[in-house]
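Re-run with default settings, no changes from the original entry. Doing this only to confirm the output is reproducible before filing.
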Amino acid sequence: QVQLVESGGGLVQAGGSLRLSCAASGSIVSINSMGWYRQARGKQRELVATVASGGNTNYADSVKGRFTISRDNTKNMVYLQMNNLKPEDTSVYYCNAVVMTTYRGLYWGQGTQVTVSS
């Protein structure tokens, strides 16, 4: 079993910053890609950013230049630094990871709420 636990969400004013963290634990052999997704009320879940095991990153156009994804492979953690937040960034943010245990599986965290006030 693998668990992903997010932390760092909260309420912030527009223009502010937050840093999300996600810790993976369990019977992990290795972790391939890790990523952040978000889902606003009434909308579909969408990609925010991903980072491969080698460090290559990918961002949604809406967050490029404002958000930075990083990972610490020694701690099985992924981070999302969010700067210059906008009200439209308000969502529940989920981390995910492609994890090798006895098989290769995709796992999700439970989500953390980010609310940006105008």
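The two ends are 40 Å apart (CA to CA). The longest strand covers residues 30-39.
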